[in-house]
């Protein structure tokens, strides 16, 4: 899967500089880790965001956002937003804000 350099730059700008944040190649794209915990990732087919179990209902109501699935297994608390959804600045910003809020509750690795 090809990377989406434009989306990567948008995510970089929205997350901004913060202690404990790093980028790494993952899932055929680029992922952001906060204190060692996966926060989000993107590639050409959209954005993966970690919202936490029970926190994704609002996101799943947004057109173009669905549950993350690995093979036959649904990943509760993770969502994938397609390129149309990630093109919406307010959707992308809220996904990142909510992902940050959840991941900040996790212990550092």
Architecture overview:
With 109 residues, the protein is an alpha+beta fold. It has one domain (5-103): Aspartate Aminotransferase, domain 1 (Alpha-Beta Complex), CATH 3.90.1150. The protein contains 4 helices and 6 strands; from the N terminus they run H-E-E-E-E-H-E-E-H-H. It has helices at 5-15, 57-60, 83-86, 89-103, and strands at residues 21-26, 29-34, 37-43, 46-50, 65-70, 73-81. A 6-stranded antiparallel sheet has the order 1-2-3-4-6-5. Strand 3 and strand 4 form a beta hairpin. The N and C termini lie far apart (28 Å). The mean pLDDT is 95.
Overall spatial form:
globular
Beta-strand proportion: 35-45%
Judging by the overall fold, what is the CATH architecture? Alpha-Beta Complex
Q: At the first level of CATH, what is the class?
A: Alpha Beta
Q: Do you know the CATH topology?
A: Aspartate Aminotransferase, domain 1
What is the number of independent domains? 1
Give the helix tally: 4
Strand order of the largest sheet: 1-2-3-4-6-5
| Beta strand count | 6
Alpha-carbon distance between the two ends: 28 Å
Query: Biggest β-sheet, characterized?
Result: 6 strands, antiparallel
Q: SSE order in H/E notation?
A: HEEEEHEEHH
pLDDT < 50 runs, ≥5 residues = none
Radius of gyration: 13 Å
Based on secondary structure, the structural category is: alpha+beta
């Amino acid at each position: 899967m090809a990377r989406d350099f434009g989306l990567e730059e948008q995510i970089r700008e929205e997350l901004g500089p913060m202690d404990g944040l790093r980028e790494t190649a993952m899932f055929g794209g680029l992922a952001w880790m906060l204190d060692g915990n996966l926060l989000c990732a993107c590639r050409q087919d959209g954005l993966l965001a970690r919202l936490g179990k029970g926190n994704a209902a609002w996101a799943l109501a947004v057109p173009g956002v669905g549950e993350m699935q690995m093979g036959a297994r649904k990943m509760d608390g993770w969502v994938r937003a397609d390129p149309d959804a990630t093109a919406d600045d307010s959707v992308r910003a809220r996904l990142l804000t909510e992902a940050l809020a959840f991941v900040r509750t996790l212990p550092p690795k």
